[in-house]
């Protein structure tokens, strides 16, 4: 190892190190960090900005409009690259950094890599208190950046330039770890960013990373095989971890070899194409009658790469109480949930190692496929234009019919995750991003912008299509402008139902009157009026048009496909009659145990009537 050193500032060392990190993907080397999203301020422009300028070709910096949306874009980028590449986000000290908290939580919940390089207060404290500094009278070391400890997998504050030598590799190793993957936060005090140190030249040598594959324990495999051999009604739950492991082919081969029906989680949508005979549909609260019908009868359940959140398990009512679960997961925490028999290890390696002589009973497979056929018929009718007032499902059906199989679909919070999950017919593997790990309104457009940046690196001729409700649009829309500025075309369907209609539906379903969700039912709004989404999108440089019905939507969608920049298509949908009514398991929500309202009381009793089916576990 060379004894040569380079005298650099802390900021210069960070950026030089990131530029030297590569990863091998499918035999090809590419930069591990695809670049970054940045909004400059006094906490990061003078030092980190200076360092980034010198690496603007190797690490392109996308100028964000909002720090929260920058984080969402970084998450969308990481999802597209299946956690094998990441983007950094840099924000100034104070409110700029604080705006990243929500997106850090989204990345943490979804186990996505994202590096945050954020301004911090002066280490010397000589100018304290400075602009935008929060003072804690009993702890001068405590500030806004400490809030990120709860939503980061790795957290550090650089108090000396030499700490970069240890901190950066640790952050990258965390972001690339299959089990511990998540966001990494590095606080950069404004003075320390500019301090110098003689760094070893070897620190900046090119390094090629590879994602670790953890082999499962032989004894856990043997226990899983023994249990699977006893199954009379086996089922596989395929989660998002199947794609992150690159185990789609192995999952399909395993299911085919043993003729085991497969159901998908929300994150696991697009593990199988719609037409595969063992694809029985999405499971859970936003699932299908077909998947939920076999889930409640299955006796052995192989849960692969899923964290088994409540929308998958129906708050743990979707399965028979005596069903046995095998948790195949690279993360010990997820593999052992609800007293599962754990197989801790990489999904690809574990599925290959689960080699045994067994075929599920033909009658069970026939029953599952019959249920799926009925569900497919329901979806075909549900998405049909003209079957009822304008609906999410109709818009989904139109786009589904017109898209290329490699186009990417993005949706997030509100009613659209349920509608896309239930009604989307997967055209190709890994083409669906329904953000429901943190169910974050505002992810739709920003996350799609990040996904489109990634998609342009590998599939530049394909489209990224966004389903967005009016509520999410109003919450965070500025990356429409970003997409136009950076020439990263999106097709955005804004489906306007007059407010937060899905929560209004939950409100009504629990016996409550409509209140403060739909704009028309908000008592502090004297005169409701409609937003001109078309004019708003056009003002940010998008092609924009408003359509009256699904037939017009189809023609507008074709125009958007032919366009060379972001297109926004607006259609009003019904807030009450347009919902997918089938396919839902029970979902535990808090309802009033005491009330003077007879409708609320009746709804509470009805809701609680399903609780006896809930599995108890840890």
Automatic annotation (TrEMBL):
A GO molecular-function descriptor:
magnesium ion binding
Q: Could you give a single Gene Ontology term from the biological process aspect?
A: isoleucine biosynthetic process
Q: Where is the composition biased (Basic and acidic residues)?
A: 596-611
Report the GO terms under cellular component: acetolactate synthase complex
Q: Say which domain of life the source belongs to.
A: Bacteria
Q: Which residues form the Thiamine pyrophosphate enzyme N-terminal TPP-binding domain?
A: 37-132
InterPro entries, A to Z: DHS-like_NAD/FAD-binding_dom, Myo_inos_IolD, THDP-binding, Thiamin_PyroP_enz_cen_dom, Thiamin_PyroP_enz_TPP-bd_dom, TPP-bd_CS, TPP_enz, TPP_enzyme_TPP-bd
Q: Which residues form a coiled coil?
A: none
| Name assigned to this protein | 3D-(3,5/4)-trihydroxycyclohexane-1,2-dione hydrolase
Organism annotation: Litoreibacter ponti
């Amino acid at each position: 190892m060379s004894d040569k050193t380079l005298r650099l500032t802390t900021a210069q060392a960070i950026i030089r190190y990131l530029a030297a990190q590569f990863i091998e993907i499918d035999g090809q080397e590419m930069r591990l960090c695809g670049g970054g999203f940045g909004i400059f301020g006094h906490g990061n422009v003078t030092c980190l900005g200076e360092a980034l300028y010198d690496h603007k070709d190797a690490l392109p910096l996308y100028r964000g409009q909002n720090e929260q949306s920058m984080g969402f874009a970084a998450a969308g980028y990481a999802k597209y690259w299946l956690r094998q590449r990441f983007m950094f986000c840099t924000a100034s000290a104070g409110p700029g950094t604080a705006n990243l908290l929500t997106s850090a939580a989204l990345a943490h919940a979804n186990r996505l890599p994202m590096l945050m390089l954020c301004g911090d207060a002066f280490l010397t404290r000589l100018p304290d208190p400075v602009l935008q500094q929060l003072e804690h009278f009993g702890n001068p070391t405590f500030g806004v950046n400490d809030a990120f400890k709860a939503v980061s997998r790795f957290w550090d504050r650089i108090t000396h330039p030499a700490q970069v030598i240890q901190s950066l590799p640790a952050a990258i190793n965390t972001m690339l770890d299959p089990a511990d993957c998540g966001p990494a936060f590095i606080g950069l005090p404004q003075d320390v960013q500019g301090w110098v140190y003689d760094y070893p030249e070897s620190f900046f040598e090119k390094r090629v990373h590879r994602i670790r594959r953890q082999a499962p324990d032989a004894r856990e495999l043997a226990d899983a095989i023994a249990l699977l051999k006893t199954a009379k009604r086996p089922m596989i739950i395929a989660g998002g971890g199947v794609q992150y492991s690159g185990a789609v082919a192995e999952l399909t081969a395993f299911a085919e070899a043993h003729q085991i029906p497969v159901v998908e989680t929300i994150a696991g949508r697009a593990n199988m194409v719609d037409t595969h005979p063992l694809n029985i549909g999405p499971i859970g609260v936003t699932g299908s009658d077909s998947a939920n019908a076999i889930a409640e009868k299955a006796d052995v359940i192989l849960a692969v790469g899923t964290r088994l959140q409540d929308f998958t398990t129906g708050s743990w009512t979707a399965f028979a109480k005596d069903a046995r679960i095998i948790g195949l997961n690279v993360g010990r925490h997820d593999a052992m949930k609800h007293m599962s028999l754990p197989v801790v290890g990489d999904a690809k390696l574990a599925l290959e190692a689960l080699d045994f002589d067994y075929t599920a009973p033909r009658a069970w497979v026939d029953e599952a496929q019959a249920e799926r056929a009925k569900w497919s018929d329901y979806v075909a009718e549900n998405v049909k234009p003209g079957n009822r007032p304008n609906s999410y499902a109709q818009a989904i059906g139109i786009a589904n019919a017109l898209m290329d199989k490699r186009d990417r679909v993005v949706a997030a919070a509100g009613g659209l995750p349920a509608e896309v999950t239930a009604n989307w017919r997967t055209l190709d593997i890994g083409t669906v991003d329904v953000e429901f790990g943190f169910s974050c309104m505002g992810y739709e457009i920003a996350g799609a912008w990040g996904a489109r940046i990634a998609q342009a690196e590998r599939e530049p001729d394909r489209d990224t299509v966004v389903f967005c409700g009016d509520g999410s649009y109003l919450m965070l829309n500025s990356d429409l402008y970003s997409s136009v500025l950076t020439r990263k075309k999106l097709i955005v369907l804004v489906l306007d139902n007059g407010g937060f209609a899905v929560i209004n539906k939950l409100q009504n379903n629990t016996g409550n009157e409509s209140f403060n969700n739909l704009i028309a039912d908000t008592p502090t709004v004297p005169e409701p009026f409609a937003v001109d989404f078309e004019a708003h999108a056009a003002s940010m440089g998008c092609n924009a048009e408003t359509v009256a019905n699904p037939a017009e939507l189809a023609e507008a969608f074709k125009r958007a496909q032919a366009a060379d920049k972001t297109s926004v298509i607006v259609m009003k949908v019904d807030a009450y009659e347009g919902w997918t009514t089938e396919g839902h398991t029970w979902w535990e929500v808090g309802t009033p145990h005491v009330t003077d309202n007879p409708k609320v009381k009746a709804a509470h009793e009805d809701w609680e009537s399903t609780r006896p089916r809930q599995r108890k576990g840890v």
